[in-house]
Amino acid sequence: MPYSFFDHTGDVGxxxxxxxxxxxxxxxxxxxxxxVTPLTGVEPRRPEELEVAAPxxxxxxxxxxxxxxxxxxxxGMLTREAQVEVRESDGGWTLQGTLMGERxxxxxxxxxxxxxxxxxxxxxxxxxDEEWHSNVVFDV
Length: 140
What we know:
By secondary structure, the protein is an alpha+beta fold. The protein is built from two helices and eight strands; from the N terminus they run E-E-H-E-H-E-E-E-E-E.
């Protein structure tokens, strides 16, 4: 599985993996949705384009997840699939891609946890055993 949850006092921790950075970030999108509501109930009904940039790779991950939180808070967007490209660019990193999902429907998408923010606590992205790894903590 590209993500797993771990205990974190008062918050929700997620361990992410991917063979590529693209897979790692796509895993982060699915873990975000799974934190909010069961992923199996979300359908890939509509696409949304996105682009995010940051000076460091770990900051890009926080900004990406914060963008998902913003889209959920403002439009109810739940992501079921994410096709993203993460690239190093002059002076930093960029992510471009397409999210597939649907709007939150209270009758079909029971809210498990309300995420308030994506934290920097223990944040790092590493490459080991031919895979990318990261831990992310959601403030709930």
